[in-house]
Batch of 2 targets.
Target 1
Amino acid sequence: MAPKEKDNAVYKTTNWFGKKMVRVAGGAVEVKGLENVPKDKPVLVVSNHQSNMDIPVLLGYLNKPIGFVSKAEIKKFPVVPTWMELMNCVFMDRSDRRQSLQAIKDGIELLKNGHSIVIFPEGTRSKGGEVGEFKAGSFHLAVKSGVAILPVTLDGTYKMFEANGNRMKPAHATVTISKPITPEDYANMDIKELTKHTQEVIASQLHK
């Protein structure tokens, strides 16, 4: 099966799962800028990270097959790693520099082969606060694979879970998709400048 066909087959299930989780929480999701999602090109999706609900929301409402750069500890959970591997996720152990570098290489190959990947460069959940400082390392995924960066701003997802003592509760969340930052756009930026620029784009759409 070709990569695109495989991604689309897995996507049908993960998209259903994402929307189902939001329905279970009684949540409502508003999406802005869906026209900015490239249909037939892989992208590095860069998003702020408010909540454990961010992953279901992106799976259900980004309208594109995606994998994630995830903490290696996730592999300890039953069933989850199998699905994440089908989604072309990358597992990273930040305490192991060699493994982290290999994870970046694996992610670059996935992007080059047509798979889109999501990163949360804050490295932790803000749980509703302002956008935290982005770590630059994962931006090498875009630069070394030559793909566009798709900035996504999540707002309100924490209200579905973390704001309620980690219990699901009905809430409204917004997904704002900004215009892609293309390789031509970032050609003259170093990695720190690209990281800062992307963070500013994402932060500018928070609380709008």
Target 2
Amino acid sequence: MAARSWLAGRGVRSAGDGWVSDGQPGVPLTANQVAHSWAAGVFAEDLDRAGQLTLAFGLLDLLDDYWVTCEIGSAHRGEDGPLPADVLWDGYRQRLEAERDAEAVTHSLWVDWFEDRATAATAFAEVLGDDVERVVSEPTAPRLRRARRVLEHSGPVPWTVKEPAYRTAARLPALHPALFRALLASHRDVHGDVAPAPALALLDRLDLPAGTPHLADLRRTFARS
């Protein structure tokens, strides 16, 4: 079932740059308002859990709104969860590899999966850790997009979980800028996690442009910690 058709069945349709509902046809709605009002209903559909999740990802593609990922997370953690892991993480990986903006997905990873110590290790493994060797040895544009996006938002992931993937990523110069931002976020994020000595050793392996902002300060911080 296509997400647009599913919304139409509930009296919601696109209108110009926004949305309208049959209930209030003269009132324009934003994608965020549509997500808040209707996204949860996906998981009440008469579909199996994989079908519901596929529909939810379609709604995410259509609305491009972070709240849809919140409803996915709620369904995963709810009394009828967990959702099918293969469909869940394949959905995240596909959108991390896509050319289109992935802010809703990366924000979801960062604040809902990586900041939660109960889910960080599994989430990081699924979106990068388990296949980082392949990303490095057989790089493609989609895989590199995914790796960069995950690395740049991986600050809260426990250091012991992400360090092996960081070390592997360091073998590919194309990932060095993203890996630098990963180390910076690991230090600066409120929930960031880093071990200064190995982080400094990793930082020294990166081939970065002279004058890279924050590089000297980060190196000094790691060196004196």
